[in-house]
């Protein structure tokens, strides 16, 4: 139970998603039915979005890899971005849908850590790809003649490698910090609980020392 509570807290801190497993109420409760319906609608929408994201990015990757006219340095950045979004759709979104559908995490601490790390890495990489593509377009417009000579496949490969390395550098350290901290130990009873337990286990005795009453 302590491990599950720690994982739930980690997921809530990372995504801001509340645990609504205890919000369904009684069978006749309208609030519980509404929450269940909204959750199902969200799951169906996310499944459709995941499939669409996968198909679109597979199409982009296939088109760039199989069409020789598209083998340009600028398109290498777009292909790398498509690979990143494909990884998000295949590795991150299905587990996110499962977590939303069930309302709780049931795949263990290791999978949770791996999922969060992949999520941070791929999403950060996707954002950085957009920044690099925008910068590439800016240089191509403002300094077209000189940048055309520098816009080589090797330069594009260096930019892609730098984006992936920076994304991993940003996302991996929190994983090691959490593993070094380790799981939360067994919860100790609160002072109130301890005092009540002690009171019930020992007979009541009058207080020692001089009386303070007048």
Automatic annotation (TrEMBL):
Signal peptide: none annotated. Keywords: Cell membrane, G-protein coupled receptor, Membrane, Receptor, Transducer, Transmembrane, Transmembrane helix. Residues 186-203 have a biased composition (Low complexity). Residues 186-214 are annotated as: Disordered. It is a multi-pass membrane protein. One of its GO terms (biological process) is adenylate cyclase-activating adrenergic receptor signaling pathway. The keyword RNA-binding does not apply. Pfam families: 7tm_1. SUPFAM superfamilies: Family A G protein-coupled receptor-like. The chain crosses the membrane at residues 40-64, 76-102, 114-135, 156-177. It comes from the Eukaryota. PROSITE patterns: G_PROTEIN_RECEP_F1_1, G_PROTEIN_RECEP_F1_2. Residues 56-214 form the G-protein coupled receptors family 1 profile domain. GO terms for molecular function: G protein-coupled receptor activity. One of its GO terms (cellular component) is plasma membrane. Its main location: membrane. Belongs to the G-protein coupled receptor 1 family. This is G-protein coupled receptors family 1 profile domain-containing protein. It comes from Anguilla anguilla (European freshwater eel).
């Amino acid at each position: 139970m302590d491990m599950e509570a720690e994982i739930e807290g980690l997921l809530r801190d990372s995504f801001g998603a509340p645990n609504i497993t205890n919000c369904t109420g009684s069978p006749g409760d309208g609030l519980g039915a509404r929450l269940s319906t909204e959750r199902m609608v969200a799951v169906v929408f996310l499944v459709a979005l995941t499939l669409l994201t996968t198909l679109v990015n597979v199409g982009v990757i296939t088109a760039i890899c199989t069409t020789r006219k598209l083998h340009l340095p600028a398109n290498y950045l777009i292909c790398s971005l498509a690979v990143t979004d494909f990884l998000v759709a295949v590795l991150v979104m299905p587990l996110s849908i499962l977590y939303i559908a069930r309302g709780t995490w049931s795949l263990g601490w290791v999978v949770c850590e791996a999922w969060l790390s992949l999520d941070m890495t791929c999403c950060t990489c996707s954002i950085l790809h957009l920044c690099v593509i925008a910068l590439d377009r800016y240089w191509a417009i403002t300094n077209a003649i000189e940048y055309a000579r520098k816009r080589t496949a090797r330069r594009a490969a260096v930019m892609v490698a730098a984006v992936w390395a920076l994304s991993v550098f940003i996302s991996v350290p929190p994983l090691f910090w959490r593993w070094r901290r380790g799981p939360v130990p067994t919860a100790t009873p609160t002072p109130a609980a301890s005092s009540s337990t002690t009171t019930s286990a020992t007979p009541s005795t009058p207080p020692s020392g001089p009386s303070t009453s007048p």
